[in-house]
Amino acid sequence: MKVFITARLPDQVLEKIAREHCFEAHGEDPPIERKKLLTSIEDKDGLLCTITDLIDEELLERARGLKIIANNGVGFDHIDVRAATRRGIPVTNTPGVLTDSTADLTFALILATARRVVEGDRMTRCGDFKFWAPLHFLGHDVSGKTLGIVGFGRIGKAVARRAAGFDMKVIYYSRTRLAVDEEEGLGVAFAALDELLRVSDFVSLHVPLGRETLHLIGAAELGTMKSSAHLINTARGPIVDEAALVEALRTGRIRAAGLDVYENEPRLSPGLSELENVVVLPHVGSATVETRTRMALMAVDNLLAGLRGERPPNCINSDMLGCRN
Ligand code: NAP
Predict the structure, then answer these.
(1) Distance 208 CA to ligand 1 centre (A)
(2) What is the pLDDT of residues 85-98, one digit of tens each?
(3) Which residues of the chain have pLDDT under 70?
């Protein structure tokens, strides 16, 4: 069968596909142009895509022979899953294999914003480290502080486990509340979103992007947070109203932010990059050699299962498609 791959992937991954099928790949890092994607998909049976590809009605209309959409990532807000389901196409993602690397990066942002790591690096490099002094270049403690986790799934829980090592008090808000024994096991307590925002020193976002979570954090929510609070977002940019965040950081409404994702990625809202109290990363939550390899191998396993007509291991829409085995 014919497969289209929208991004550059490790050789071992491509070899695995080539053993069973023909493939065509956009073998460059800058994302494939929309026009090229629309024409490339027309005669394909399988699609291996990433977050930068919009998989919508228009594309699916062109892809009449498509049997599987295998996403190389856990978030699937760029895919119209309903439209794929209407056409009987399974959609898959790569859950779990990127949990630890994304939780690690979340902690890197917590520590970087609290201890002014990036600002300090900039200052030292340009020769402005002239002396040590008791009150010079102070940051704030992470240890012992309250961490509020919004979205308590795989990554949210992995962040909580890391926070235990810093003796942090962890509270969480999520759609589904955990059983009490699970809460006790993890040493966490549930809080309503309002309450979490009001009492947390660090607020870390781990919900998926969807209609319900678009601008979940806007001016009103930022206004509820402590003026000493830090907002960390390694989930998806549009969960935060970025213009409101810039204003909150500029006016000192909150103290700092650590961001890996942006509302209009890869563009940043005006004013964001000029602020000293924000650490900005280029969407690298899962970007380690080990994790990106595991993700691509998982995406390929899903792809190959879909092409064989089997239910892929990580099918997002299997309930909606019914049992296809
Ligand atoms: P997950 O296991 O599905 O966890 C998401 C959690 O959010 C679940 O507990 C879910 O509740 C909860 N939730 C969903 N909708 C909600 C709502 N409207 N209000 C409150 N809680 C809600 O997903 P994950 O693997 O932890 O990944 C989370 C997100 O991180 C992904 O969707 C992706 O966008 C992002 N991500 C980013 C990077 C990066 O490179 N920066 C890397 C990996 C992932 P239920 O238990 O009820 O479903």
Answers:
(1) 4
(2) 999 999 999 999 99
(3) 322-325
Q: Whose CA is nearest to atom 5 of ligand 1?
A: 153
- Which is the closest atom of ligand 1 to the Cα of 212? 18
Give dist(CA 292, CA 98) in Å, integer: 8
CB 68 within 8 A of CB 92: yes
Query: Domain spanning 99-280 has what CATH number?
Result: 3.40.50.720
Q: 2-95+289-323, what's its fold?
A: Rossmann fold (3.40.50)
Structure tokens at 206: 């781990």
pLDDT for the residue numbered 322: 66
Read out DSSP for 246-285?
HHHHHTTSSSEEEES--TBTTB--TTGGG-TTEEE--S-T
- Whether 2-95+289-323 and 99-280 share one fold: the answer is yes
Catalytic residues: 236, 265, 283
State the CB neighbour count (10 A cutoff) for residue 244.
19
Å from CA of 127 to ligand 1 middle:
42
